[in-house]
Design a protein that fits this description.
Elements (H helix, E strand, L loop, with lengths): L2 H15 L1 H44 L6 H7 L1 E4 L13 H4 L2 E4 L11 H4 L11 H17 L4 H6 L1 H7 L4 H31 L6 H28 L3 H30 L5 H15 L8 H14 L11 H37 L5 H13 L3 H29 L2 H5 L5 H4 L5 H4 L11 H7 L1 H23 L6
Amino acid sequence: MSAVRLIARDELRLMARNRVAVIAFVLLVLLTLVAVASAWSHQRNIAELRERNAHAAESAFDRQPDRHPHRVVHAGHFIFRPLGPLAAFDPGVDAFTGNSMFLEGHRQNTANFGDVRQSSLLVRFGLLTPAFVLQVVAPLLLIFLGYGVLARERERGTLRVLLLQGAGRGEVVGGKLLAVGTVAMLAGLPAMIGFALIAGQPGALVLPMLTIAGGYLLYLALWVLLIVLVSALVRRSLDALLALLALWVVTVVLLPRLAPDVAGAAVPLDNRLQTDVAIARDLRAMGDSHDPDDPYFDEFKQSVLERYDVGTVEELPVNYQGLLAMEGEQMTSKLFDQYADKSYNAQERQNWMVEWLGVLSPAISVRSVSMAAAGTDFAGHRRFLDQAEAYRYELVQQLNRLQAEAVSYADDIAEDPGADDRRRVAAANWAKMPDFGFRPATSAELARAAVPGLLMLVGWLVLAGLALASATRRLGWAK
């Protein structure tokens, strides 16, 4: 048996004799299994709830009675974002951003009914998921198991004995790496098995699955290198433990919490009230469709009359009120899109800053890899918002077009007792409106979005490896 394997075997035997370490490892495995089971159950329940509510919303929309199309515009419609298979492993921002949207005319709403807002305050401290266990708990276990792998040998004087007996510095470090790496693999194995079970369902994409698995493999390998590196640099086991705990607190707990605050301060984001006030101000400046003397809509009316070659709106072959509603919706939607793009761009700059702070925290990098490949990051949320807005606009314009073509102008403006019945259209028209269908990102798009985080993890791994190689050359002889 090689010296590396002998050293690794002795280190693992020593770890196994440590009752506290064994109990901690068993607890980690149990915590991982609980996280997998709870995440799987939560994802199934949420998916079933959303599907049930989506069918109920579509059924309620189709069952509307005969009514004026513009009333249907204002009655609105609920849509729900379906969850991908990988969301159970890492729900990302989904619990905070909301999963449904109310669509209505003349207004662009935001997603709502996020799990955090609908659940107890305990949920705000973080969901128990396999991703959370691997990102936060697994490195802490590895620290407590491996902090003394080299510092303890130096402290007891056995390191020189190993070197005098013919073991090379590289073999000693390699054996310690193999021992801590074996523990890391065993610690991550339950989460990866759970990940395979969660993701191995219809609709799962192989490339994003491999990307996530590769990201966590790099992350755990990095912590193995960092633990052995710190243990090689310090003289006492206690110093190694304190240094590694400080590193864990800063990179896993502190920086991921501070990064969004730093990004928010650097790139301010208007709140919903500020945006609504600005939109209302711009709409007043653009034109008022209810004001007969408004310059913009007076010009619009003249262009419509010229297009149909008539002298008055009463002579038009279509209902002018419907054309007016279509023009007003086009104007407001264009304005909504401008403010939405402004907000999205600001949020993307914030996310870019947070991701680049992954240079200081590998936990941020692996989190960005996990969420991007699972489709639960901001890009996935924006994909839902963009498709929801496109669907809302098309739905409202179809209803406005129905008003223009199926309701006469005379009936639309009439005020006699029977006018309300005459301007109603048949309920069968609502069932002809298209249902919302969310188009998720492709496998290649999800994997591509995770590349920056993967590169940062590789960079961390290379730097840690170079530092360990340098520390290995000086190992054993300095007093």
